[in-house]
Design a protein that fits this description.
- There is one protein chain.
- By secondary structure, the chain is of the alpha/beta class.
- It has 4 domains: 105 residues, 3-Layer(aba) Sandwich (Glutaredoxin); 98 residues, 3-Layer(aba) Sandwich (Glutaredoxin); 107 residues, Glutaredoxin, CATH 3.40.30; 86 residues, Glutaredoxin.
- Helices cover 35% and strands 22% of the residues.
- Helix 4 packs across helix 5.
- The structure holds 2-acetamido-2-deoxy-beta-D-glucopyranose (7 copies).
- The site of one 2-acetamido-2-deoxy-beta-D-glucopyranose has 6 residues, from helix 14.
- One 2-acetamido-2-deoxy-beta-D-glucopyranose binds next to helix 14.
Amino acid sequence: MAMSSAISLCFVFLFALHSSLLLLTVAGTSDSQEFVVELDHSNFTHFVTNLDFLIVSFYSPGCGRCKKLAPEYEKAAYILSKHNSHLVLAKVNISKQANVGLAGSDGRISIKIVRDGGKNVQEYKGPYDADGIVKYVKRQYGPASIEINTLEDAQIFLSDNKIAIVGIFPHFSGEEFENYTILAKNLRPTEEFFHTSDAKLLPQGESSVAGPLMRVFKPFDELFVDTQDFDVNALEKFVEESIVPTVTIMDGDQINQRLVDNFMYNSNSKVMLFINFSSEVAASLKYKYHELAELYKGDNLSFLMADIGVSSHAIKQYGIKDDQIPFVILLSDGTKYLKSNVEPDELSPWLKKYKFAFISFLLEFYAPSHKVCKELASVFEDLAISYQRDPDVIIAKFDIFANDILHDFEIWKLPTVYFKSADGNISQYIGYATKEDFREFIEKNRSKPADEQLDVKDEL
Ligand SMILES: *[C@@H]1O[C@H](CO)[C@@H](O)[C@H](O)[C@H]1NC(C)=O
Ligand SMILES: *[C@@H]1O[C@H](CO)[C@@H](O)[C@H](O)[C@H]1NC(C)=O
Ligand SMILES: *[C@@H]1O[C@H](CO)[C@@H](O)[C@H](O)[C@H]1NC(C)=O
Ligand SMILES: *[C@@H]1O[C@H](CO)[C@@H](O)[C@H](O)[C@H]1NC(C)=O
Ligand SMILES: *[C@@H]1O[C@H](CO)[C@@H](O)[C@H](O)[C@H]1NC(C)=O
Ligand SMILES: *[C@@H]1O[C@H](CO)[C@@H](O)[C@H](O)[C@H]1NC(C)=O
Ligand SMILES: *[C@@H]1O[C@H](CO)[C@@H](O)[C@H](O)[C@H]1NC(C)=O
């Protein structure tokens, strides 16, 4: 077996196979032919530097996800090898210590898209079934952006149920076009990019524009959005922001599922409403929830609404009983807050309470060189450690020379310690500067959330 994969490797190396027939012939010679190329620390670099394009699965034989992937990956490698000999799938066993470093600085189980002899590495963001892998890898190998020339192209590429990004340019050259191409290369693992010189071919939006203009089509909210700011970073930010719906819908629809994944993986705090989409109260809850989401959009908060019919797994995880539905959950900094039997008018006050006011602060304003401040430093350190596991209390200190002082506080002498309770009262701490005294003060003054606080697993 080692022999036969060495043979197919030689073909890739020496002949850079332009004819897929040749490879097929090799494949025909052995039933146990493996189309996925095994690499390790002894030959990885040499192999990679000779290729423009390569997919590498960094796997561990023990991981369940890897076991499930393996036969699909092998099947995809076979199909791809028939299609185009440049489409090579490889794997590296990172259970072997010497191979870990090959998977990048974090050495994680992952699939990577490796281009330009290893100079450009991107995370694989495609599907895990053979057909899905094939389609995705072909697309990754082709041009970063595809030209739309005809109405038919537009119909094929811009079906109304997916996100697609189209650059409109009078000519396919110049700085704007170059920046767009850089964007397409950067984001191609997750988004599909197109370009055209005829906006009339596009299904929506102003059709008389000549560009340069970038139009993001999306199957939700405004359906498309335009930008003319062609700075690469601005383009990237624009795409990231436009592809997050005001409210992500989890209803079992495949197209929405990708948006649910985006929702789960972004770093924002998350609000999730679980309702029965066919119940009577659904309409007014949806309406109020949308209002709320509009209000807090861009505030590092993401909103999701799930139909209980397709989220029973999540509901079980949160330990919710049928008679507690509908319910809403806020996940913020590792803490979870839940309100069951939530009514439309309760959504807004509930969120406000937790998002902006559930934390008590003890703030010390100090100057690093000040003698008393120095003495207090270790007391504050200890205090902070004792509240480390309490998500509702924050012990913070502000160097008055390094920070703009918050308007709510007046600093007359150093050090000054202020307390802000969860319901917003601010008062100056006056008392002894020992850890015990501070603790007693905090415990007396903090106001605890009245709702249930959950401690459950993060995933849905
Ligand atoms: C790389 O080295 C490993 C271990 O010697 C071997 O199993 C594998 O077939 C080699 N791969 C290639 C492409 O030469
Ligand atoms: C992967 O590496 C581990 C550790 O060296 C080894 O035990 C295992 O047999 C290897 N698996 C495969 C499929 O090569
Ligand atoms: C292209 O992007 C760069 C930054 O990456 C920016 O400096 C330049 O102004 C952009 N060009 C145009 C025409 O926006
Ligand atoms: C949702 O509500 C509808 C209409 O009230 C009801 O028929 C259905 O059983 C409910 N679904 C679930 C999963 O409770
Ligand atoms: C959102 O989060 C980022 C990083 O965590 C932070 O820098 C930014 O100030 C936050 N924005 C808002 C509006 O809270
Ligand atoms: C905050 O102030 C209000 C009004 O002065 C008071 O009723 C409430 O008890 C205070 N909260 C705490 C935690 O002391
Ligand atoms: C905290 O409690 C003390 C008494 O223990 C009281 O004097 C002070 O006003 C309270 N502070 C706040 C913010 O409620």
